[in-house]
Specification:
Helix content is 80%, strand content 0%. By secondary structure, it is an all-alpha fold. Helix 4 (88-101) runs parallel beside helix 6 (139-173).
């Protein structure tokens, strides 16, 4: 059951990320968010259905949850009290720690992980779309930093952990 939920979340994150890329490529920047919401929701649902049918991934589900939670916490921290951009790096360290603990099940899982993390970031950003974060100096920069760099870190940590595990397996065979 846990693997199925992680697959649904991971592929749902991939679906919402692909929807984001579609929106960026096709729609002009002045398009109302209400018009784009069905695309994001459709990507999330189709990705979740694909994950339910075909999925067998683990790390990507955790990456989606991590991207969503960290972005939500950053929004809430910036809204609640003065927060510094340098604190965002602590959240990136959390991404490194969690992605080191979580095990990737396959190469597909490693490939989907950054897209799932970015999908969680996008979903949280959509939830806070009506909050005027641009009025708080440094808030948008730190949130985007953690979203984009966190996706890259999740990919690198998944690849590095898979490499280390493969090297240990090869070492035992020698």
């Amino acid at each position: 059951m846990k693997k199925e939920i992680m697959s649904i979340l991971g592929f749902g994150g991939l679906g919402i990320t692909l929807s984001f890329f579609l929106v960026v490529m096709v729609y002009p920047s002045y398009t109302a968010m209400e018009k784009l919401m069905p695309l994001y929701l459709g990507g999330l649902i189709l990705g979740g259905i694909f994950g339910m049918v075909k999925g067998n991934i683990n790390a990507s589900g955790y990456a989606f949850i991590l991207g969503f939670l960290i972005t939500t916490v950053l929004h809430l921290l910036w809204i609640s009290f003065p927060f510094k951009v340098s604190y965002a790096f602590a959240f990136l360290a959390l991404v490194v720690f969690v992605m080191w603990i979580v095990e990737s099940t396959s190469t597909l899982d490693i490939a989907v992980t950054p897209f799932a993390y970015f999908g969680g970031f996008i979903l949280a950003a959509i939830l806070f779309r009506n909050v005027e974060m641009y009025k708080i100096e440094g808030s948008v920069m730190s949130i985007v930093l953690v979203g984009v760099v966190g996706a890259g870190i999740s990919l690198l940590m998944s690849m590095f952990k898979a490499f280390v595990e493969s090297a240990q397996t090869a070492k035992k065979k020698i």
